[in-house]
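Q: Got a minute? One more chain.
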Amino acid sequence: QVQLDESGGGLVQAGGSLRLSCVASGRSFGGYYIGWFRQTPGKEREFVARIIWNSGSTYYADTVKGRFVISRDNAENMVNLQMNNLKPEDTALYYCATKTGAISQYDSWGQGTQVTVSS
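A: Always. Here it is, folded:
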């Protein structure tokens, strides 16, 4: 498993932007799929976006497509989630997670970073 740490959450007004970051301790992201998920109290965790580190291939949930961008920073061994045009319904605890292949399960999770969007 990989130790993951998220940062960058905060309070922002609707229409604003935030940039979340996920770093891995102790090893490179090389070979991993890195995903961002979010969860609000009483709801199931929701997939947001993912990137395949080696290829840079990305995939987004329809709810964030066109507003969020997931990217990798090879030098910093970091995955970023740029969130633009934020909406109140984007309010959630955001987690990054890793898995080793397309059909495997995400098995390493960070502690999460809170994003709150005010209307």
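A: The two ends are 38 Å apart (CA to CA).
Q: Perfect, thanks.
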